Every structure is written in C-alpha cells, then in structure tokens.
C-alpha cells in the first residue's frame, strides 16, 4: 500500500490548481464529477467525450492536471469528464475494476453503472458524438477502463490505459464490438508490474504484453505484436526517446491495438508536454466504426 501512497505524493508534487466541479444532477447526486467544456464549444457540432479515471488514492481533477488534459480539451475541442471513485475503509478513492484492483474490501460498488450515468448525463446536457467516446485511465483507473470497455464495448471507441491491466481470466471480458486499445506501461513499474503479478488481495493480473494480446484476440486481430519503428520522448525523467511502440497487425479496419513501453519508466512517469497530444492523437484517429445517431445503449 505504501507504493500507492508514494505515487500520489509524486502526482501532487507535480500538479496544482483545481478544476471547477459542476453541481451534480440525478442520477449522480451523491457522486459529483468534473466536466470541462472546451472553449468554443458549439452544440450544433457534436464533440468527442473523454472520460478520465484516476488512480487509487487520487481524484479526477488531480489526474487531469497530471495528464495535462484540460488545456488540450480547449485546443482539441473535446469534453473532458473527471469522475471520482468512492472511498474505501482507508479513506482512499478507488474504482471497482477487475478482481485485482481495487475493491479491497469487497463493497461491490457498481462503477460500470456509475460511468454509464456520467456519460448519459453529459450527453443529455451537451452535444456528444456517440462515435467518439473514449476512456483514459491510470493504474486503478486503467483497470477500470479495461473493465468498462469489456462490459460496455458498444459505448466506447477506444481506451488509453497507463499502468493498469485487463482481467487475468478473459472469461470476464466479452465485448460485443471492437475497442481500440493503447496500453502504456513503464518497464520499471514497481507497483503494477510490467510483466504481471498479484495484488495484496492475492488476485493475479496479466502483464502489459498479455493485456494487449487479449485485446487483439477480443478484437479479432489475426496478426502478431511487432515493433512499428516509432520511438519517442514522453518521460522527462528518462533521457532520449525512451518510449517504444509495438502494434498488432491484421486487426479489423479502423481498430488498432498498440503497446507503448516506457523503457526505465516508473508507475508515475514524469510526462513532458508531448504526452497529452500523443494520447489524444490516438483517440482522435480511432472513432467507433459504426456511426450512431445517439449515445449507444448499455450493452
């Protein structure tokens, strides 16, 4: 548990300021969330929606500042939702993602339904492009992003996950449509290990390569994971172009499964100014294949 707390300390040291939290309306009265409406928003033109899920012990606004997404929302024109997990017996915010992370006290809180409600509520009050709904998560929030994409694949075009994995038992993940996946993980992550491992509750989680392999299979990709030749600099704590990209071949048109390995990267990378733009570029290039006239139902 100390590693989780240490991660939060690092994040808090790197960020500051606060997002304005709007008053919440039914059905999320007792779980308010932040919503950043981009400058220049025009309801006549449906906007993408990015739902950002924080790590264990953190919160939505802190995660948003760490990832540098509020300013980019204005520049790129997407709605940015920053919901919060509930508090456990330690007083720490968490998401009930996979069995490995992080409902330590088995509360059974239905965070899939909560994220449903957040998306529904935003779509009811704003013009949301149903083909461009994305989830981004860090650590516990990444586990939750995988869980939501498994359970609600029809609602999600793509997910970006940092230091958080899929279900170990793929019987728990049964998407009804392809979801593009960008998995990002530091090679030296000592909290959620790159090669996989187990949590304090004894539950086992897969490694980064196994996670993208699982999504490739779920999406019907016929090829294999291979380097693309792209290397770039995202982590200011590591010299040079430390991030290596690999991708699956043979995926359905419009669907991609990518792995970005941050060589020497930790659980909380010191992201530079390229990070937010890089992950947004992935999302922007992966809308849902089938256009829909309204936000997809919860199936």
Succession of helices and strands:
HEEHHEEEHEHEEEEHEEEH
Structural class: alpha/beta
Number of helices: 7
Shape: globular
Q: What is the overall pLDDT average?
A: 90
User: Radius of gyration over alpha carbons?
Assistant: 18 Å
How far the N terminus sits from the C terminus, by CA atoms, comes to 35 Å
- The CATH topology is given as Rossmann fold
Strand content: 15-25%
Task: Kindly give the count of domains.
Answer: 1
- Major β-sheet strand ordering: 1-3-2-6-7-8-13-12-11
Corresponding CATH superfamily? Alpha/Beta hydrolase fold, catalytic domain
Largest sheet: 9 strands, mixed
Helix content: 25-40%
Low-confidence stretches: 1-27, 291-295
Under CATH at level 1, the class stands as Alpha Beta
In the CATH hierarchy, the architecture is 3-Layer(aba) Sandwich
Report on this model:
There is one protein chain. With 299 residues, this protein is of the alpha/beta class. It has one domain (2-284): Alpha/Beta hydrolase fold, catalytic domain (Rossmann fold, 3-Layer(aba) Sandwich). The protein contains seven helices and 13 strands. The protein has helices at 2-14, 60-67, 69-76, 111-125, 140-151, 208-219, 274-284; strands at 34-36, 47-53, 79-82, 86-87, 93-94, 128-138, 158-162, 180-186, 197-198, 204-205, 225-232, 243-248, 257-262. A nine-stranded mixed sheet has the order 1-3-2-6-7-8-13-12-11, sandwiched between helices. Strands 4-5 form a two-stranded antiparallel ribbon. Strands 9-10 form a two-stranded antiparallel sheet. It is globular, with a radius of gyration of 18 Å.
């Amino acid at each position: 548990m100390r590693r989780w707390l240490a991660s939060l300390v690092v994040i808090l040291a790197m960020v500051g300021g606060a997002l304005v939290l709007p008053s919440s309306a039914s059905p999320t009265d007792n779980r308010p969330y932040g919503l950043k409406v981009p400058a220049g928003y025009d309801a006549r033109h449906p906007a993408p929606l990015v739902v950002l899920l924080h790590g264990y012990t953190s919160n939505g606004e802190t995660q948003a500042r760490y990832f540098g997404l509020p300013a980019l929302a204005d520049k790129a024109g997407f709605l940015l939702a920053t919901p919060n997990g509930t508090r456990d017996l330690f007083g720490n915010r968490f998401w009930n993602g996979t069995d490995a992370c992080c409902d330590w006290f088995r509360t059974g809180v239905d965070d899939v339904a909560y994220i449903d409600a957040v998306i529904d509520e935003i779509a009811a009050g704003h013009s949301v492009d149903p083909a461009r709904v994305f989830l981004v998560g860090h650590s516990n929030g990444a586990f939750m992003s995988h869980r939501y994409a498994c359970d609600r694949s029809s609602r999600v075009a793509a997910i970006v996950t940092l230091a958080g994995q899929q279900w170990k038992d793929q019987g728990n993940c049964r998407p009804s449509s392809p979801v593009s996946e960008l998995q990002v993980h530091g090679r030296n992550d000592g909290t959620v290990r790159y090669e996989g491992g187990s949590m304090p509750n004894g539950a086992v989680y897969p490694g980064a390569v196994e996670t993208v392999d699982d999504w490739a299979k779920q999406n019907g990709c016929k090829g294999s994971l291979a380097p693309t030749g792209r290397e770039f600099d995202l982590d200011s704590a590591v010299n040079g172009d430390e991030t290596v990209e690999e991708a699956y071949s043979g995926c359905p048109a419009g669907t991609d499964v990518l792995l970005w390995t941050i060589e020497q990267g930790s659980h909380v990378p010191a992201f530079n100014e390229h990070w937010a733009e890089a992950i947004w570029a992935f999302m922007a290039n992966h809308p849902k294949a089938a256009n829909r006239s309204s936000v997809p139902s919860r199936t």
